[in-house]
Design brief:
Strand order of the largest sheet: 1-4-5
Number of strands: 5
Helix content: 25-40%
Oligomer: single chain
Structural class: alpha/beta
Length: 99
C-alpha cells in the first residue's frame, strides 16, 4: 500500500501581521513546515503533496523537487485546500495505476 501525505501550506498568516508566510517562521531552529515535511518523509517513500497558494514561492524554494505541488487558486479554507491535495493524489494514483 502506498501512503500519500498532503501538507496544507497555502496559509498567509495575516493574523500574525508578518510578510513571511506563517509556515516559514522558524520554530526549533527550522521553518515550521520543515518539521512536518521531515515527519512525512520519515513515514512514506512518496514525496509529500504540498498545497500552496497561487503567489507563494517560499515553500517551493525550500523543498524544490523533494515534494509535489498543487496550487490552490483561491484560499477558501482548509476543506477547500485539502480537496486540492486529495484530487492530486487520486489523479496520480490513477496515472501510476496503483488504484
Amino acid at each position: 500500500m502506498t501512503l500519500a501525505i498532503v501538507i496544507l501550506a497555502a496559509g498567509q498568516g495575516t493574523r500574525m501581521k508578518s510578510k513571511t508566510q506563517k509556515i516559514l517562521h522558524h520554530v526549533g531552529g527550522k521553518p515550521m513546515v520543515q518539521h512536518i515535511f521531515d515527519a512525512a518523509t520519515a513515514v512514506s517513500d512518496q514525496p509529500p503533496v504540498m498545497v500552496v497558494g497561487p503567489q507563494e514561492t517560499g515553500v517551493q524554494n525550500l523543498f524544490g523537487a523533494a515534494a509535489n505541488y498543487v496550487v490552490q487558486p483561491e484560499q477558501l479554507g482548509h476543506r477547500y485546500c485539502y480537496s486540492w491535495g486529495l484530487g492530486y493524489c487520486f489523479l496520480e494514483c490513477r496515472r501510476q495505476r496503483h488504484c
